[in-house]
Specification:
Radius of gyration: 16 Å
Strand content: 25-35%
Helix content: 25-40%
Shape: globular
Distance between the termini: 38 Å
CATH architecture: 3-Layer(aba) Sandwich
Strand order of the largest sheet: 1-2-3-4-5
Largest sheet: 5 strands, antiparallel
CATH topology: Aminopeptidase
Bound molecules: coenzyme A
Length: about 190
């Protein structure tokens, strides 16, 4: 088992999951129709607990993955991190960056801060060459965040886990490689 990785920014800390304590707040996010409006479904408590235990085990086994986003005074307010894409597509195998912040804590720059920590870990200690992300076109907060991080829009693809004909099936694919990440940090 690798050493647990904790990433600390000015406001948030990305830390390993504390089970079972984090499962309640995680379920509040995963069961919130507003936070989950660009997903196929909200999750009930059992589905959320299962997802939480899986991302926690995945993080523990590799050292990096989807971390718990901890905000001092508020506790666990989201999940942000990098992990291998969980399905096969033309662009896989690939490592994705993903984010989910509790509705009450959105628009405060927390996802951006957490994502920058995760990208730095990915291109630094994890030695990744490229990180991708995907989201439905209607999820403007998510793709705007990708663009703010310096990720470039690549193409539309059909998400293999969304049924054919469903309006959420087309997804935008974004990506950033190490050179692009360095350039974005230099403001290029
Ligand atoms: C996408 C999400 C993680 C953004 O989290 P957040 O903490 O609110 O984002 P930040 O405050 O760090 O915003 C960073 C940038 O993201 C973009 N952004 C975030 N929310 C936005 C919104 N409502 N509309 C447009 N752009 C938005 C902007 O570029 C913003 O920079 P700016 O504030 O300088 O304009 C959040 O909306 C969320 O959790 N959504 C629900 C879960 C989800 O859809 N996850 C993605 C699945 S693909």
């Amino acid at each position: 088992m690798p050493e647990p990785v904790v990433l600390t920014g000015p406001r948030v800390t990305l830390r390993p999951w504390r089970l079972p304590d984090d499962l309640g707040p995680l379920s509040a996010i995963n069961g919130d129709p507003e936070a989950m409006r660009h997903f196929l479904n909200t999750m009930d408590r059992a589905e959320s607990d299962d997802w939480g235990r899986r991302i926690a085990a995945d993080l523990d086994s590799r050292g990096w993955g989807f971390w718990a986003v901890d905000l001092p005074g508020a506790g666990m307010v989201g999940a942000v991190g990098i992990k291998p894409a969980p399905f096969e597509a033309e662009f896989t195998p690939a490592v994705e960056i993903g984010w989910r912040i509790a509705t009450a804590f959105q628009r405060r720059g927390l996802a951006e801060e957490a994502a920058r920590l995760a990208l730095a870990y990915g291109f630094g200690p994890a030695r990744l060459d490229r990180i991708v992300a995907w989201t439905p076109p209607a999820n403007e907060p998510s793709w705007r965040l990708m663009e703010k991080l310096g990720m470039r829009r690549d193409r539309l693809f059909d998400h293999p886990r969304v049924p054919e004909g469903h309006p959420l099936r087309p997804h935008l694919l974004y990506g950033i490689d190490r050179a692009g990440w360095i350039a974005s940090r230099l403001g290029a």
